[in-house]
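Morning F.,

Quick status update on the modeling queue. The single chain you submitted on Monday has been processed. Sequence for confirmation:
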Amino acid sequence: MEVVVIVVLVLAAVGLAVWAHQQEKKRVAGLLAWGRQVSMTLLAERLPNPSWPYALFQRGHSRYAQVVLRHDWTLATPGLGGGHMVMFEYHYAVTTGSGKNRRTHHYWNTGALVDLGMQVGHVSVEREGLGDKLAAVFGFDDLDFEDAEFSKRFKVQAEAKKDAWTLLDGAMMRWWKEHPQCRIETRGREALVVLESSGKASPERFLALKEWTMGFLAQMPRVLVNAERARQGLQPIVEAGNASTQSRAERSE
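Structure tokens below.
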């Protein structure tokens, strides 16, 4: 009888594993279909061990990105031209203990590499108190701002403090307090944006990531936008970044 029970349990475990595998394939296929439906460009169905220069991609083992989709835009930041973002689902695992106490935990993130279109330095912003620290590798102190509520709710680090203070002006902080769904690490003209809530990707999570990113770009400080315009040989304008009528209207909604 014990042998029969063991066989039944083994078969049940195998059946469950096969079913889970099939469901996962179906989920990923659904994400790929959604990407085609919204006219995004598929860059890779699966990308093993991506070498992107951010702390997130150095953690654990069994690292890979999948459903890597590119979204292009003609205008996101008032005063600047087009850009793009590369969205993906990212997985890594962490194994602890040994022998019978050996455990492997799997982590899933929905994220994007974003073309900022301007130089913003090396800055990270995330909700205060999270165990999954995007920029813990910085080793810098948490910066404080005149907005006490923002400083209490968010952890900000930067290689150069002035870069954080320039990026996070009053308008940007007000917008961020109303839209705390993502954390970010900037590196020059690029940024890694990750949904604060971990979990497997879905069309809804991809859409939320896209909308947050577009909102963030629309709130870029005018001083940064005009600095980029100057680098391009263009004249500064009043209707730039978060000083534009478009961005002010979005903040008042």
